[in-house]
Amino acid sequence: FDRQKVVRTCLRMHATPEQAQLVADKVVEQMYDGITSKKILQLVFHNLGKHRPELKHQIDLREAVAKLRPKPDFEKFVGLLLQEYGYRIFMNQIVDGSCVNHEIDVIAKNDDEVLYVEVKHHLQHHTFTGLGVFLEANSTFEDLNGGKLNFSKAMVVCNTKISDHARRYGECRGIRHIGWKSPEDKGLEQMIEEKKLYPITILKGMSPVVEARLGDAGIVLLKQLAVKDIKALAKSTGVPTSVLQELALSADEILR
Amino acid sequence: FDRQKVVRTCLRMHATPEQAQLVADKVVEQMYDGITSKKILQLVFHNLGKHRPELKHQIDLREAVAKLRPKPDFEKFVGLLLQEYGYRIFMNQIVDGSCVNHEIDVIAKNDDEVLYVEVKHHLQHHTFTGLGVFLEANSTFEDLNGGKLNFSKAMVVCNTKISDHARRYGECRGIRHIGWKSPEDKGLEQMIEEKKLYPITILKGMSPVVEARLGDAGIVLLKQLAVKDIKALAKSTGVPTSVLQELALSADEILR
Fold first, then answer.
1. What is the pLDDT of residues B202-245, one digit of tens each?
2. 3-state SS assignment for residue B11
3. Dist. CA A30–CA A7, nearest whole Å
4. Spatial CB neighbours of B126, under 8 Å, sequence gap ≥ 6
């Protein structure tokens, strides 16, 4: 058991350093032999919730991201994330390569580079993203670079951890990636926290049906939900105003 | 409706040309508006069965191949197939590439070439094998060729049809393939028929449990079943002698 890990988890959830220490103390008291890491996380949530009531509205971030539909919601999510980090985004483009054309999930441009982005979503958040995705990305990148558009790099963005095998290959071939806790200094979870890009699925009351309807309307982030005209949104999605209102208020509490 | 197609199907099932014509006549009589191709195939089976009683024991070849377990049975099947066509076979090798090592399903050698073989099995026999498999194979081949073993070509072997997109890419990159009815002149079905390499799953009485037990014992072909000592096989697999005896007799009827 690593006390510091609990402290870091709390800080990542925007606890103050003092709150983080208090929570860690409490968790240590409530520990028992053979406790699972899932149970520890629940204890952290429970104790941190006393200091930060907005946590009552949210579920674990990694689970939340996994709950987004792979297409189009997680792809959209990745697009918005890269946009927040200064890229111009082009979604679902069909681009000629030297052998065949390729359907590219996201193209991300800034002044320095043009990224070909391969998006990989696992519904099961404990699954690792493996070598296969990187092998595919490598061949696609290679084939694209015989075509008209000039790409500077390939990038894999996924919602889970990345196997060592896959990471070694990616580094060797110059394929960039964003995954869960990877790269170490700037994984998906850190990018999300830094810009508060929480997926709507982090809300406890979010049913798959409502998620799908909001997703169809292009809404995948709490941020988008909080600023939307609720009445207009109810009309376009068919989700009752009362439900949307409650979700928007919870979103606001988490974001502020 | 294409009468010639029925004739060709019959010939592929080893009907004589006369039998094929008779069956086609019968099928034409029994046709009706809106008949599905599955129903047509059933009619062909039914009518051909009157001339060739051994058909009573077998199901459609494509379905049969799909019923093999992907690992290790279909891989083993592919190994034996390539062996019959003159290759020396090495299964499930781990080979160093220039970036990472790779688990290779099959390596096939003859005097002229060393093939890296990627095996892809779909349980659903109507699924197409798509671009992704060929993109992976291309990157793997590229990475292997930085290693110690010298491969001359990559080859994809699968049990279903191959999408046009994938085939175009494969041709462009020099990746060979064997799939269902592809290449046109020598698809998997033709290779199987030519050497009578029927999978054990072609037998009507073959339950998934028995298939798995035989597969665990390395038996995936009718040929293997027909020449085995039944008593010894019953002992090593735990399948009752009476069941094995019946299967071996049916196998023999189909093979002779």
1. 988 789 999 999 999 999 999 999 888 999 999 999 999 999 99
2. helix
3. 15
4. B160
Q: Which of A99, A131, A169 sits opposite B169 (nearest CB)?
A: A99
Q: Is B138 on the interface with A (CB under 8 A)?
A: yes
A106: region left, alpha or beta (phi > 0 left; psi from -120 to 50 alpha): beta
Q: What ipTM was assigned to the predicted interfaces of this complex?
A: 0.77
Chain-chain contact of A99 with B173 (C-beta, under 8 angstroms): yes
Give me the residues paired with residue B178 across strands: B157
What is the signed CA dihedral for B198, B204, B208, B211, rounded to 10 degrees?
-40
Chain-chain contact of B136 with A139 (C-beta, under 8 angstroms)? yes
- pLDDT > 90: percent of chain B: 68
CA gap A28, A36 in Å, rounded: 13
Cα-Cα-Cα-Cα torsion A142, A147, A148, A149, nearest 10 degrees, comes to -30
Residue B98 with chain A: CB contacts under 8 Å: 172
Tens digit of pLDDT for each residue in B237-256?
A: 999 999 999 899 888 888 87
Closest to A177 in 3D by CA, of A115, A94, A107, A93: A115
Least CB–CB distance from A168: residue in B99, B132, B134: B99
Sign of dihedral through CA atoms A80, A84, A85, A87? positive
- Contact call for A136 and B140, based on CB within 8 A: no
| Residue A171 to residue A176: CA distance in whole angstroms | 7
